[in-house]
Design a protein that fits this description.
It contains 4 helices and no strands.
């Protein structure tokens, strides 16, 4: 279960952006906002970095791309399983066809 709502995450990220000019570096802004919200600094840092990647400000894989990659990996795994089943069936039926028939 998620501890924080999406609205809370978005608000926290906005707050960091708003107070960033008042601090000498991002870490200080993160500590300030995390203290105000009573949350872990590292959690907030991850949210801010994810938002920056998603906005194209920071290099990395966006959330949308990460979801697409996960979906494609599941699909590839499913197709590989289906392919193995088909290979096994093909071998089975090939043996059946090669077996001499007795009447």
């Amino acid at each position: 279960m998620a501890r924080y709502t999406n609205e809370m995450r978005e608000r926290a990220v906005r707050m960091v952006a708003e107070v960033r000019p008042e601090h000498p570096h991002e870490t200080a802004a993160l500590r300030h906002v995390a203290g105000l919200l009573g949350m872990n600094v590292e959690t907030l840092r991850l949210w801010v970095h994810r938002a920056q990647v998603d906005a194209g400000v920071r290099p990395g894989t966006t959330s949308e791309e990460a979801e697409e990659i996960k979906r494609l990996k599941r699909e590839v795994a499913e197709l590989r399983r289906a392919n193995e089943i088909l290979k096994s069936a093909s071998v089975f039926f090939a043996k059946e066809l090669d077996r001499p028939t007795t009447r």
